[in-house]
Specification:
By secondary structure, chain A is mostly helical. Chain A has six helices and two strands; from the N terminus they run ααααββαα. Chain A has a two-stranded antiparallel ribbon with strand order 1-2. Chain A binds a DNA duplex through residues 31-33, 48-50, 58-66, 69, 81, 84-88. Chains A, B: It comes from Microbacterium insulae.
Chain lengths: 154, 154
DNA sequence: TATTGTTATACTCTATAACTATA
DNA sequence: TATAGTTATAGAGTATAACAATA
């Protein structure tokens, strides 16, 4: 009963966060996967496309498309890899970097404003519960993946 | 600081829930928006396409595409509207219905299993916090929308 | 021979604009 | 004239398969 309440609240919050994020990105002419790619560059520095594909959980082919789009809009660029002539290093441009800095600040601000008005104990309990839920979910997902592999073997 | 923790936990949980959901749907040959449409039919009964478009927050044109796909896979069907010959009523087939029943049960089970192992007080505090966060988010989104409208007026 | 990235192709998500049939 | 749904078109997300250049 209350478990369903927790799940439904989480799903509702997800939907709102996602919709708000998409609207904010749209306003800047960005899209979710492109921003995600820039986010990785922002936090981990220049990367090869294969590495980006792993980080983002998408195919290398799709990274080509994303980088093409970011390049065309002047947010990222390809540079030659210093030692491997097959590979390129993708990096943020000045404009891409300053955009990520702005978004990073907004992220912090949003986080603070979410718990604004809640007492410390409730926040602490919520953090405990969220961490627990996250752990449970990771276990469940692992089980699902296991079940799927078994299925695929037949 | 802890606000960012809450936000990051929520985002991480969203990502996991979404990825897991997509994998489960994929396994059944479904997609997220098609399932969402079936979910509405399951909970609210047969609907016109215009009404479905409103419920799902998409264009009527896209509902046509979704219903076409569900029809082609035998999960939903179009029926003539009893009084308005322009309109159709979309309804679940037997197979669509039983699929929704299965998913509904799994949803309940997932909810229960998420809080499995947490004491009642923590769960209560988490629910309080989540409801608060949701309210804050709704306020923020409304503010964003307001700001956007102002921008558009110039 | 294995790996990096790209060309070719295809399906799904989603929108806008124009149109048909009916209200 | 307004509304319900569809044809036409298009951009974005995403995948697989085949291929080129380089390791």
């Amino acid at each position: 009963m209350s478990g369903t309440h927790v799940l439904d609240s989480l799903l509702a919050i997800s939907r709102i966060l996602e919709a708000d994020q998409e609207r904010e990105l749209d306003r800047r002419g960005l899209t979710v996967p492109r921003t995600h790619l820039m986010w990785v560059l922002f936090h981990e520095g220049p990367q090869t496309q294969v590495h980006l594909a792993e980080q983002l959980g998408v195919t290398p082919r799709y990274v080509t498309t994303l980088v093409d789009a970011l390049d065309a809009t002047g947010l990222a660029r390809r540079e030659p890899h210093p030692t491997d002539r097959r590979a390129v290093l993708v990096d943020l441009t000045e404009r891409g970097l300053s955009m990520m800095e702005t978004m990073d600040a907004e992220h912090e601000q949003l986080g603070a404003s979410l718990i604004d008005g809640l007492d410390g104990e409730t926040v602490a309990a919520a953090i405990r519960a969220l961490d627990h839920v996250r752990g449970r979910l990771e276990t469940l997902v692992a089980e699902h993946e296991h079940a799927q592999k078994e299925r695929e073997e037949w």
